[in-house]
Write a structure and sequence with these properties.
By secondary structure, the chain is of the alpha/beta class. The chain contains eleven helices and 14 strands. The strands form three sheets. The protein has an eight-stranded mixed beta sheet, with helices on both faces. Strands 8-9-11-10 form a four-stranded antiparallel beta sheet, with helices on one face. Helix 2 packs across helix 8, helix 7 packs antiparallel against helix 8 and helix 9 packs across helix 10.
Length: 366
């Protein structure tokens, strides 16, 4: 017997939690037939769905959260008009470039381990996610970085996709928000010579379910111009960067109407993207912890992890570093945002400058 599902949206975190008292397995998920889509206005859509006042308010909060998650959306960033507020934020999260010497001093005597997000960190955010190419200069910089420090890319993308962009076999890759972890190709990294190959997939049982939901989302969103559904193997992304803002609420309803039927999945949002992931206790922070353990630093005081990322999903890693009291997080953002990161960088070019300085410092030490 399946108990009643309850869907609750949180405008602050951007996460929709679907609670259910029963225990579900992916194979038990049987979605209802998806009705054909009819293009109608938001007002009429709300009426046809018989949304109550409270439900309508939650939808509006969700759309407001969609705006707030898009840092280039001026209306969602009143702090931009306040230079004092921006300066105050920078005092709390100063530039990692300006604080480079302090960072190096804190790392002395410890092994630096690098963790890098991809989109918005190593590559610019672009309209078409299939064209988020890394520059040749950034690739060379990351390649040099990996010669100096163990280096991982932790991303929401599937490993195959991000590897097709980066093309560096000496890196650790944690795709699908850390749910698909793979170590460097044997012989390409000096940091895994005496260690077994790393391969970990905590959400392996969800593959059939993810494929099923992917097909539904493609069908459900195909009438929304600009919407793109991406299968990241163990999670899904619905990009709305190219969707007219007037269609955001309609798209949110479509995505929610699919995900709400799957109690073992959760819906969250990032920079103009919805993320659908298995509801397991695993995130980018857990992936960081697993990789440190794989490198032999599980209970070590001699490790200094540095995590650089730009998205909400990176906050789990920033928070973990705070809790460990080791290393620090760097948020990539031009705008003030609530974050657990210690420092900030404005954009991928600044990220590259920071990585170059790390490499130069390390080469001098050798």
């Amino acid at each position: 017997m399946v108990s009643q599902n309850v869907v609750v949206s949180d405008a602050n975190t951007g996460i929709i939690t679907v609670s259910n008292s029963s225990v579900f397995t992916p194979s038990a998920q049987k979605p209802p037939t998806v009705p054909a889509h009819i293009s109608i206005s938001k007002k009429k859509l709300l009426k046809n769905l018989e949304l109550s006042g409270a439900q309508s308010q939650r939808l509006n909060s969700w759309v407001d959260s969609m705006r707030a998650s898009s840092p280039t959306h001026l209306k969602s960033l009143p702090s931009l008009s306040s230079e004092d507020e921006l300066n105050s934020w920078l005092k709390r999260h100063p530039s990692a470039l300006d604080m480079f010497e302090r960072i190096i001093e804190a790392s002395r005597g410890k092994q630096i381990v690098m963790f890098l997000d991809y989109d918005g960190t190593l590559s610019p955010i672009v309209a078409d996610p299939d064209r988020a190419f890394i520059s040749s200069k950034m690739r060379r910089t990351v390649k040099k970085l990996a010669k100096c420090f163990p280096t991982s890319i932790v991303t929401g993308r599937c490993i195959d996709k991000v590897y097709s962009f980066v093309k560096l076999a000496e890196l650790y890759y944690a795709g699908s928000h850390g749910m698909d972890i793979k170590g460097p190709t044997k012989g390409f990294s000096r940091y895994n010579k005496d260690k077994p190959s790393v391969l970990y997939q905590p959400a392996g049982d969800f593959l059939p379910l993810i494929d099923e939901v992917f097909k539904q989302l493609v069908e459900k969103t195909k009438s929304t111009p600009g919407a793109k559904v991406e299968n990241n193997k163990f999670c899904l992304s619905v990009h709305f960067r190219c969707v007219d803002e007037k269609k955001w609420s309609e798209l949110a309803l479509k995505v929610r109407s699919v995900v709400k039927n799957y109690p073992t999945l959760k819906l969250s949002q990032g920079r103009k993207v919805f993320e659908i992931r298995p509801m397991i206790k695993w995130d980018k922070g857990k992936a960081l912890e697993f990789l440190l353990e794989s490198l032999g630093f599980e209970n070590s005081d001699d490790v200094f992890p540095i995590y650089i990322g730009d998205d909400r999903t990176d906050e789990d890693a920033f928070k973990l570093l705070q809790e460990r009291g080791q290393g620090f997080g760097i948020l990539v953002s031009k705008f003030p945002k609530d974050t657990n990161a210690s420092y900030s960088l404005q954009d991928p070019p600044e990220v590259m400058d920071f990585l170059r300085r790390l490499v130069e410092w390390k080469q001098i030490q050798l």
